[in-house]
Recover the amino acids of this structure.
């Protein structure tokens, strides 16, 4: 199941415990955290959640976070060490009952590989804070660089500079995606002569009709040149008011699409020159940006 997305990074969460009943209960609790308070949603990364038994972990893609249920932490703590070996780079959270919250117990959990604990009666705010901190940690480990190319007003060459930067980066052997933010005129896409100019695949993701997966996002980009020069373009989705509404899920999903590309390619350049409204504010708050006002 998927929580409504917030600004920034998509985080995958596995809920793991021995019995289906315990997994279901913990899944319900975490889902409740994610929907508990509308005021928390602007801070919340996009989250996907799935329940698994301990035996299924090895056959599943490693998540960003694995939440271990109380059956594992109370009756089979040695299994934690096994899970840690299976998921060496995953953040492990252990739900613990009150009688295991003493410092000696926490030290034991740490030795077994637990990164943090989720107390039995934790609040939604406490859980969201953990995910926000994780979001910051993951941003530092991103493979690529995502840059916004902006200008103080129109006509200063933002689109030309984005294209030139993309071509230069690709010519030096680094994989690069240029993302067109002009939902009305598709100037960057037209300048690079990439067709189609309108990205229906991206619209399907924004509307929730396709999952926000690597495969789906990859289908949103097109090669600029044939051959081995590593430059792609992401044409804009059809324009819609939902990209400018403060609480619209679509605009936060759009940011997550950029971050999926950021994790797959060396550089992602987003032409922000024609972007307006809440999407512009959100992008400027989340990402590094380069202003082109001095390029005359």
């Amino acid at each position: 199941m998927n929580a409504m997305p917030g600004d920034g990074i998509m985080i995958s969460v596995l809920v793991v415990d021995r019995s289906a009943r315990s997994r279901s209960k913990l899944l319900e609790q975490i889902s409740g955290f994610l929907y508990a308070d509308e005021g928390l949603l602007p801070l919340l990364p996009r989250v996907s959640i799935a329940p698994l038994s301990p035996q299924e972990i090895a056959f599943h893609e490693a998540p960003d976070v694995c939440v271990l249920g109380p059956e594992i932490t109370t009756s089979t703590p040695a299994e934690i060490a096994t899970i840690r070996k299976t998921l060496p780079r995953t953040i492990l959270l252990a739900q613990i009952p009150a009688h295991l919250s003493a410092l000696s117990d926490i030290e034991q959990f740490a030795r077994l590989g637990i990164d943090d604990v989720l107390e039995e009666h934790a609040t939604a705010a406490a859980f969201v804070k953990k995910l926000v901190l994780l979001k910051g940690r993951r941003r530092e480990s991103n493979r690529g660089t995502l840059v916004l190319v902006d200008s103080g007003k129109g006509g200063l060459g933002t689109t030309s500079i984005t294209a030139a930067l993309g071509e230069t980066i690709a010519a030096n052997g680094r994989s690069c995606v240029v993302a067109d933010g002009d939902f009305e005129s598709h100037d960057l896409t037209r300048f690079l002569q990439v067709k189609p100019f309108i990205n229906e695949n991206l619209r399907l993701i924004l509307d929730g009709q396709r999952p926000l997966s690597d495969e789906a996002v990859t289908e949103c980009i097109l090669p600029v040149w044939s051959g081995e020069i590593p430059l792609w373009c992401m044409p804009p989705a059809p324009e819609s008011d939902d990209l400018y509404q403060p609480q619209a899920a679509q605009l936060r999903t759009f940011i997550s699409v950029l971050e999926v590309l950021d994790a797959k390619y060396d550089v992602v350049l987003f032409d922000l020159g024609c972007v307006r409204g809440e999407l512009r504010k959100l992008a400027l708050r989340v990402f590094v940006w380069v202003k082109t006002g001095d390029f005359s």
